[in-house]
Amino acid sequence: MKKRVLFILVALLLAACGGNEPTPTPTVAPPPVVVSTATETPIPTVSFCKAVDPSQLHLNTLGLPYPYQVNCVPERPYDASMPPGPVGLPEHIQINFATLDPAAVTPLDPIIYIIPAQAYVAMWDAAGDTTVSQNMQRLRDLVASKPQAVPTSSNPILPMELATGFNNLAVQGSYLDFGYWDGVRFVGRFEQSPNPVTNQNLYYYFQGFAGENDEVFVSMR
């Protein structure tokens, strides 16, 4: 379901023209210098959901017993005021299963996040919280280096809304590479305290990057 994302940067070039040396006579007063006080009009930023059109994303669910819906989710500013920990996401796309309304998603619902990576890191860095930038870099390093085996614990997870706690178990790990997008997947859990391993606490996770420059972060649970 990889989609290439093209960001077009427009540069404005100003050319200056020079004149000849003025003749000594007759003396001609130079033209007055006009200083413009007008503010430069900023180039509008294209929203993520316009760059990646949710209506163009379709899945082959291979017979899953519940429907899915692709949603454009507005920005949720960084907020560290509520337990279990800080949250916050830029405008992004969610593919929601079973519970089709993103506002009503429960911790048990499967979900796919498609997030602009740079905007996500910038939001948290601006709040003085480097958790996202650190986890994002760890994931980039893991996917790029592809060590012989996926770590069996201590794997980073994003977005922070997806899981809280520490990854104390990861099995059946492998690396996936589909050309324009790649990542790592495993079956595991994230816990805040030691608990017996049961099927109810285990989830399939995928963390990876899409785009020519890995500018889109993709996460699935």
Query: What is the arithmetic mean of pLDDT?
Result: 81
Assembly state here?
A: single chain
Overall 3D form: globular
As for the number of domains, it is 1
User: How many DSSP helices?
Assistant: 3
- Largest sheet geometry: 7 strands, antiparallel
The helix fraction, in percent, is 10-25%
Strand content bin: 25-35%
List the SSEs and their pairings.
Elements: H1 48-51, E1 68-73, E2 76-79, E3 87-89, E4 92-97, E5 111-116, H2 117-126, H3 131-145, E6 166-177, E7 181-191, E8 203-210, E9 216-220
Antiparallel strand pairs: 1-4, 2-3, 4-5, 5-9, 6-7, 7-8, 8-9
Helix pairs in contact: 2-3
Description:
The chain has one domain (48-220). 13% of the residues lie in helices and 28% in strands. The chain has helices spanning 48-51, 117-126, 131-145; strands at 68-73, 76-79, 87-89, 92-97, 111-116, 166-177, 181-191, 203-210, 216-220. The strands form two sheets. Strands 1-4-5-9-8-7-6 form a seven-stranded antiparallel beta sheet. The longest helix has 15 residues, at 131-145. Mean pLDDT is 81; it is low at 1-44.
